[in-house]
Fold this protein.
Amino acid sequence: MDRHFGMHEQQRTSGAPGLDFETWETTRLKPSNTMPFLERMREDINSILERDPAARSKLEILTCYPGLWAVWYHRVSHALWKSRIRLLARILSQVSRFFTGVDIHPGALLGRRLFIDHATGVVIGETAIVGDDVTLYQGVTLGGTGKGHGKRHPTLCDGVFVGNNANILGNITVGANSRVGAGSVVLADVPPNSTVVGVPAHIVYRNGERILITDPHDIKDPLSDALIALAARVDELEKRLLPAQEPCAEPFAAEEADRTAYREELDRESYFVSMGEGI
């Protein structure tokens, strides 16, 4: 199905937690080439056969993968949506939801070789954009925030992997080849080649290198301020009660030592550990 994304990732001066004041280059989402429907179907099946070790044959994929059916349903409903047959498009999307457990708005733009594994509970909003070779697991939500019109759902660039029950909310961009850990809630842009985890999500790997966060403010968790204030208060009380003793160690010093030891252990066992996998 011929369509053009026509969107760019914006160059950011701030964004995902732990990467304030960093920038990355703009990346243009590639347009899909015109391809006959049956060829697209064959490409989808071959893609799943390559990416899913549980897939044993093309017949099994054709008959037992509801995520694949959902993508095919969407191609028809999206064509109806572009032809301004909006009600029929929405009805077809609800039929797809009934049979597959996947709710894709017919206005969403999906790239080639999208793999929705296990399928159940996946929601993709009206203005969401999904690039090529993206993998979504069960329970993923590409949702909007607020009631505003216009672009209000996320953009996933090529090669993005999203773990089960992750929520990516708002008009944000997840850069190419990035990974979102299971159960994460992503509320800010993610640069390319990164791994994010947590609620709210923060970057733990970028370009294959571990990102250590020593300042709780970088996680942007509402509880961070309370923890920092509590640690400072304890430090103040210790200084008042024990003035003769040496000053207490810096807050989070023990945690930083644990992180350093953990990183050294990972370096020693790098043969057995693949960074960013297993989420």
In short: The helical segments are 37-51, 58-64, 66-82, 86-100, 222-241, 253-268. Confidence is low (pLDDT under 50) at residues 1-31. The longest helix spans residues 222-241. The CA atoms of residues 18 and 218 lie 5 Å apart.
